[in-house]
Structure formats: C-alpha cells, structure tokens
Design brief:
Layout lengths: L1 E4 L2 E4 L7 E3 L8 H17 L15 E11 L2 E10 L5 E2 L3 E4 L7 H14 L5
Parallel strand pairs: 3-4
Antiparallel strand pairs: 1-2, 4-5, 5-6, 5-7
Length: 124
C-alpha cells in the first residue's frame, strides 16, 4: 500500500527518497556486470527504489558507487563508496576476488558486487 506525502511516495519496506547508483551498468564487460549485480543486490536486500537518470540527482538521499582499488587480470579489489544527502564520502570494507587459472569473469565481478552489498553497512 502506498502513502502520498508531499511529492514523495513510500511503500512498505521502501525508501521514500531516491537511491542513485553511479556505476555504469551499460558496460559490456565485467564492470558492467558488477554494476548490474550491485543494483540488483541493493533492490533485493533493502527493497530500495533506485532512481533513474537525471531525475534523481537533486533529490537523492544516497549516492552509491563501486570504487575499484586494484584491477588485474586475475584479481579485483573494491569497496562501496557512498554519500548521504550530498555529504562527505563514506567507504565500506574492501572485498577482493582472486582466481589462479584464468582471468576474472563477469560471474566473478557479480559475486564481488553481491558480497559488497552484504558486507557494507549502508545507511538504509
């Protein structure tokens, strides 16, 4: 059931203000796969409403991005970075994925993003 409050609409379990994910889900490589997994993980874990494009920038409560700290063919190290109401950036724990017998794949990057969602204490 939705409740109207001014220009914001809330649903049970959903954030009233938009969440912006800044990474580029349109990339056709493992970075895009990680971004898509981040968005899906946020929606699943916290039942948040992700903002679409420019409409969210001014009213965003939370802006989230993946910060790639180290990228090598067989190793990824990343963390989530977020801002609440445009304030100072905050960072979550560093998570890594390492493989020995091949290069990192989209599946590896998706797993990394899912772990970032699980391990990062976002203010939701």
């Amino acid at each position: 059931m939705a409740e109207a409050s001014g220009s914001q609409t809330t649903q049970a379990g959903r954030s009233a203000r938009p969440i912006v994910v800044s990474c580029n889900a349109g990339n056709e490589d493992w970075r895009g796969a990680a971004c898509r997994a981040l968005k899906a993980g946020l929606e699943r874990r916290w039942a948040v409403a992700l903002a679409k494009g420019d409409e969210a920038e001014a009213g965003a409560y939370l802006a989230v991005d993946i910060e790639w700290l180290r990228v090598e063919p067989t190793f990824l190290l990343a963390r989530l970075v977020w801002r609440v109401d445009g304030g100072a950036p905050q960072v979550g724990p560093e998570i890594e994925v390492s493989v020995n017998d091949r290069d990192v794949t989209e599946s590896d990057a998706e797993h990394l993003a899912e772990t970032l969602v699980k391990m990062t204490p976002l203010p939701l």
